[in-house]
UniProtKB/TrEMBL annotation:
The keyword Iron-sulfur does not apply. It is found in: Cell membrane. It is a multi-pass membrane protein. The chain crosses the membrane at residues 38-56, 68-87, 93-118, 125-149, 155-176, 188-207, 213-235, 256-278, 290-310, 322-340, 346-368, 389-410, 461-484. This is MFS transporter. It comes from Nonomuraea longicatena. The lineage of its organism: Bacteria, Bacillati, Actinomycetota, Actinomycetes, Streptosporangiales. The keyword Transport applies. Keywords: Cell membrane, Membrane, Transmembrane, Transmembrane helix, Transport. SUPFAM superfamilies: MFS general substrate transporter. Its main location: membrane. Residues 2-489 form the Major facilitator superfamily (MFS) profile domain. PANTHER family: MAJOR FACILITATOR SUPERFAMILY MULTIDRUG TRANSPORTER MFSC (PTHR42718), METHYL VIOLOGEN RESISTANCE PROTEIN SMVA (PTHR42718:SF47).
Length: 492
């Protein structure tokens, strides 16, 4: 029962990572967010989760894991309701950030609870396997769930469906989950929390503003430099503390650092593909939310197969060979998607989607395993925290970086449309949703011209995103091939 409660919570955390992807077009029509606000709406959840994961784990050790996870369920449920009834982009961004905090509170405590409850080694291994798959399954089915719900009840319902489930999970969890604490908890350093969260937020904010303004100004430069400085001070502080919030000495191990970067790059590319592909299919191809969600199921299924067969691939080719080959397969799939570039040819897109999902599934599984195996056994808890953080940070940064590319290419690629006034040209160039919202005010011929121009510009942006992701994954594969070489006496 405890495993069911914990896994149910993790499943919802995974779903909310990707559930909004197919609902973005309808959400954009209602709230009219700017390009930067839309990116915040999508990835502030994963960024908040990544920023608070280690902090919540340390705090849970002190105040009690049961108390932390139940507070996480409550926070997640309240934030879900706040997301559903948001009337502006700013409200939705704040509610999504709170949703990420709730998810961090849930995820940070569950592994420790499993270790306390399942004292038998074999049972514990099975429980951790179920726990791990719950989040990845949730992220995989998120677009389909979002498509089913958004098409019938609107975008707000994709959050509202969490509430009754969480009421049950909270009620049962309060009865069955035992309390546990670390008898010698690590020191909770508030200054480190503030430095890491503020620094990460500043860097991502500056990045999104580059896409919003198609260039840099003094405010963007100062914000970016301030964020980088705060993150530098954070790293320096962790190296000096006897009990750091995040132990960077683990990164002195070459294989640990390389595996972490592989996970960040791969999961970032995978979540970005889920996000931009759903927008591309709907906005350029005219797919319904449900059809777009269904179109991603082969990608999701292949990802699951890749995760299951990853150990066999590692036994056959070694961790280094399997990771490198899977990253190259993922990069090749992105390249083919960029080359096809036609939503009408879904049959042609099917093969690269299967390849992308399969390659990403292998990398995520073997990358996570490499992170854990590269750390010393007595530091497995710290390695696990970094492993979880790398997944969420990859998801947030993948959408942030590639979303900025999309915004810049869309704005610069939006051609002038005859018949539009100066203000209307500015509006049409903000985002696809803004151009679509403008059409109701225009004569039919001009509206059709605006829609076709917006589709061409978005299509160019998607192609640019796919090309850059291809290059990034290829470079990550090269890094894995070079830096995962075994040392003397080590196996591959």
């Amino acid at each position: 029962m405890i495993l069911a409660v914990i896994s149910g919570g993790l499943l919802l955390c995974g779903i909310d990572l990707t559930v909004l992807h197919v609902a973005v077009p309808s959400l954009s029509r209602d709230l009219r967010p700017s390009a930067a606000e839309l990116l915040w709406i999508v990835d502030v959840y994963s960024l908040a989760l990544a920023a608070m994961l280690v902090t919540c784990g340390t705090l849970g050790d002190r105040i009690g894991r049961r108390r932390m996870v139940l507070a996480g369920f409550l926070t997640f449920g309240l934030a879900s309701a706040a997301c559903a009834f948001s009337a502006s982009s700013v409200q939705l961004i704040a509610a999504r950030a709170a949703l990420g905090l709730g998810a961090a509170m849930i995820m940070a405590s569950t592994v420790a609870i499993i270790r306390v409850v399942f004292t038998d080694g074999r049972e514990r291994a099975f429980a951790i396997g179920v726990w791990t798959s719950a989040h990845s399954v949730g992220a995989t089915i998120g677009p389909l769930v979002g498509g089913l719900v958004a098409e019938r009840w609107g975008w707000g319902a994709v959050f509202l469906v969490n509430v009754p489930v969480l009421v049950v999970i909270l009620a049962v969890g309060a009865r069955v989950i035992p309390e546990s604490k670390n008898p010698v908890p690590r020191r909770w350093d508030l200054a480190s929390v503030v430095l890491s969260v503020t620094g990460l937020a500043a860097v991502v904010y500056a990045l999104k503003q580059v896409g919003e303004h198609i260039g840099v100004n003094a405010t963007i430069i100062v914000t970016a430099l301030g964020g980088v400085t705060l993150l530098y001070v954070f790293v320096r502080r962790q190296r000096r503390l006897a009990e750091p919030l995040l132990d960077f000495s683990l990164f002195a191990e070459r294989r640990f650092t390389t595996a972490t970067l592989c996970v960040i790059g791969c999961f970032g590319g995978y979540v970005a593909l889920l996000f931009f592909l759903t927008q591309w299919l709907q906005q350029v191809g005219g797919y319904s939310p449900l059809y777009a969600g269904l179109s991603l199921m082969p990608l999701a299924a292949a990802n699951a197969v890749g995760a299951v067969t990853a150990p066999w691939m590692a036994n056959r080719w070694g961790n280094r060979g399997a990771l490198t080959g899977a990253l190259l397969l993922f990069a090749l799939a992105y390249a083919v998607i960029a080359a096809v570039g036609d939503t009408a040819q879904y049959g042609v897109l099917l093969a690269p989607l299967l390849a992308a999902g399969y390659g990403a599934g292998i990398v995520m599984t073997l990358g996570a395993d490499s992170i854990m195996s590269a750390a010393q056994p007595e530091r497995s808890g710290e390695a696990a925290a970094i492993q979880e953080t790398s997944f969420e940070l990859g998801a947030g940064l993948g959408v942030a970086v590639l979303g900025t590319v999309m915004a810049v290419v869309y704005r610069t690629g939006m051609p002038p449309v005859p018949g539009l006034g100066a203000d209307e040209r500015v509006t049409a160039g903000e985002s696809f949703a803004a151009a679509e919202g403008l059409m109701a005010q225009l004569p039919p011929a001009t509206a059709d011209a605006v829609l076709n121009a917006a589709r061409r510009a978005y299509d160019q942006g998607f192609t640019a995103v796919a090309v850059i992701a291809t290059v990034g994954l290829a470079l990550t594969a090269a890094m894995a091939a070079v830096l995962l070489r075994p040392g003397k006496g080590e196996s591959v």
